[in-house]
Design goal:
Layout (H helix, E strand, L loop, with lengths): L1 H13 L3 E3 L5 E2 L5 E2 L1 E3 L8 H18 L5 E5 L4 H11 L3 E4 L12 E2 L7 E9 L3 H12 L3 E10 L3 H9 L4 E6 H10 L7 H10 L13
Parallel strand pairs: 5-6, 5-8, 8-9, 9-10
Antiparallel strand pairs: 1-4, 2-3, 6-7
Amino acid sequence: MKERKEQVAKGLLSIQAVFFRPEEPFIWASGIKSPVYTDNRLILTAPAVRNMVEQAIADTVREVYPDCEALMGTSTAGIAHAAIAGHILGLPMGYVRSRSKDHGRQNQIEGKLTPGEKVVVVEDLISTGGSVIEVVNVLREAGAEVLGIVSIFTYGMKKGLERLAAANVKNVSLTDFDTIAAVAAREHYIRDEDIARLIAFRDNPSDESWIGGTRK
């Protein structure tokens, strides 16, 4: 598992899907200043990394959720990953819209879903966990048995972990914030002394004291 986490971390860093800039923070839509920018959509444009990530998703489903009968992607970032991993596994896939369509059959779940079907949700990244839990709830309300989530990357933020626990949903990530920070330092994307600043951000995003960063 550790080897897979580091392999995925190296791949994401190599295509700047996860990009560290502790000296010049990015601004999230929420207004939070962040030393990290994550864009896992870049995986789809990098065939070697894409193949590695999709195989890792498929392997994780086989290992952790062997009873899985279908994959359900989150809209929109999880759709392609669910489709490719579903192809590898020979499983059906579908996806869950953020809201029901306002025309046609007004579906929120796209693709056939049978009540009682055992499904795994595929998500690209998890920060506070709100959006993926909404997907889980929609599937449960439709009668699915949600075995859990496979995500490509998770920040491991306290709020996200608490929300997942409260929703009684398991998440397995291919890689995580701590692993990527460690690999980034080892591969010289960041300095060793930046790791503490990154972890300080992860542990309390609203506290911006990490920006000045004490250097040792």
